[in-house]
Design brief:
By secondary structure, the protein is α/β, with parallel strands linked by helices. It has one domain: 3-Layer(aba) Sandwich (Rossmann fold). The protein is 43% helix and 15% strand. It has five helices and six strands. α1 runs parallel beside α5 and α3 packs antiparallel against α4. It is globular and about 45 Å long.
Length: 162
């Protein structure tokens, strides 16, 4: 009697980076993690980036314009992938499709928090347009880098174990 071998199709995990506004420190953390774990990583931006040349990394240069990089990521990423983005509306699209999305400060976007995040984003957008608030970026320091690195490692580990 011949034994049938159970062959599982290898799950391919990729990291997608919404790279136009991605802090350099976060990009460095992603590169180190991808090299350590041997995960293919795609940086999507509207300009050329200084990314190391290896079989693990690629850059997709899209036309300049609103949501073009977001659309590319949303259309090409899958449920075994992880996406790094600051864009709340892109994150909402990804969460809806059960794709892991994380921001550069290490916050994971989930079904439980994305609705509130979209609402706050829309309110802030409206207040900025009326001049009631000014836009400012919160400082990005060591605490934020550690939080991102920990979240990235935790989420990649979960995806790679599937």
């Amino acid at each position: 009697m011949l034994k049938q071998s159970k062959s599982r199709e290898a799950i391919v995990v990729k990291i997608w980076v919404d790279a136009d506004a991605c802090p350099g420190a976060v990009r460095d953390i992603i590169i180190k993690a991808a090299l350590r774990l041997k995960v293919k990583t795609i940086f999507v931006a509207n300009k050329a980036l200084g990314i190391p040349t290896t079989e693990l990394f690629s850059t997709v240069v899209v036309a300049a314009g609103p949501d073009i990089a977001d659309d590319h990521i949303a259309e090409n990423s899958g449920t075994t992938d992880l996406v790094v983005t600051q864009d709340i509306l892109l994150a909402a699209r990804l969460v809806e499709r059960s794709i892991v999305a994380i921001n550069p400060r290490g916050d994971i976007y989930t079904e439980e928090n994305i609705g509130e995040r979209v609402s706050v984003r829309n309110l802030s957008h409206d207040l900025r347009e009326t001049g009631e608030i000014k836009t400012f970026n919160k400082p990005f320091g060591d605490k934020e880098k550690r939080s991102f690195a920990n979240s990235l490692d935790r989420e990649l580990t979960k995806l790679l174990k599937k």
